[in-house]
Design brief:
Blueprint (H helix, E strand, L loop, with lengths): L1 H12 L4 E11 L5 E7 L6 E2 L2 E2 L7 H13 L1 E5 L5 E8 L4 E16 L11 E4 L1 H7 L3 H8 L13
Parallel strand pairs: 1-7
Antiparallel strand pairs: 1-2, 1-4, 2-3, 2-8, 5-7, 6-7
Helix pairs in contact: 3-4
Length: about 160
C-alpha cells in the first residue's frame, strides 16, 4: 500500500486529482431503522468513514471492505454498486491535495472486539442524520444524510 500512496502523492504534486475508496458500515435496527458507523481519524480525531488508497489487484469494493475491517473492526457484505462519491482536502506533510472518494455500503454482520486500529480509533453507531452532523466534509455529510439502502438488504438485526 505504501507504493500506491507514494504514486498518489506524485500525481497530486503534478496537480492531478487522486482517488481513494471508502465504506459506510451500516446495520438495520429491530424497527428497520438504519444506523451507520463512523470512526475517528488517527491524527485529528474527527469523525469519518473508513477509507484508504486503492489496492493493487483488488477492486474498489474489496479495498473498501478491507479498510472497514482494519479501521472500524467490522465484517460484512459490501454492496456491489457504489453508494456515491465525495471529495475532500487531504493533509500531507507540506500541502493539501484534493482527493476523490468512491463510497461503498457495507452491510455489517459482525463487529470485532479487537481489530488492527482499535487502539488508534473510536467507533460509533449513529443515525444517518446524527452522523451527518458530526462529519466535517460537506459532500460526505450530504451523502450520509441522504443515504439510500437498497431494498434487497437483509432482515433487521435484533
Amino acid at each position: 500500500m505504501a507504493a500506491i500512496k507514494k504514486k498518489a502523492v506524485r500525481k497530486a504534486k503534478k496537480g492531478e486529482r487522486i482517488r481513494q475508496v471508502a465504506a459506510i458500515p451500516f446495520r438495520l435496527g429491530a424497527k428497520g431503522d438504519v444506523e451507520v458507523m463512523l470512526v475517528t481519524s488517527r491524527t485529528t480525531r474527527r469523525f469519518i468513514v473508513p477509507k484508504g488508497w486503492p489496492m493493487k489487484g483488488k477492486s474498489g469494493r474489496k479495498a473498501a471492505t478491507i479498510e472497514a475491517q482494519e479501521e472500524a473492526g467490522v465484517l460484512g457484505k459490501t454492496l456491489k454498486d457504489p453508494a456515491g462519491t465525495y471529495s475532500y482536502w487531504k493533509r500531507l506533510a507540506n500541502r493539501f491535495v484534493r482527493v476523490d472518494v468512491i463510497v461503498y455500503l457495507l452491510d455489517v454482520t459482525e463487529e470485532l472486539a479487537n481489530w488492527q486500529e482499535a487502539k488508534r480509533r473510536q467507533r460509533a453507531w449513529l443515525t444517518p442524520s446524527d452522523a451527518a452532523m458530526l462529519i466535517d466534509e460537506p459532500d460526505l455529510s450530504t451523502l450520509v444524510r441522504t443515504l439510500h439502502i437498497p431494498k434487497s438488504s437483509p432482515a433487521p438485526q435484533v
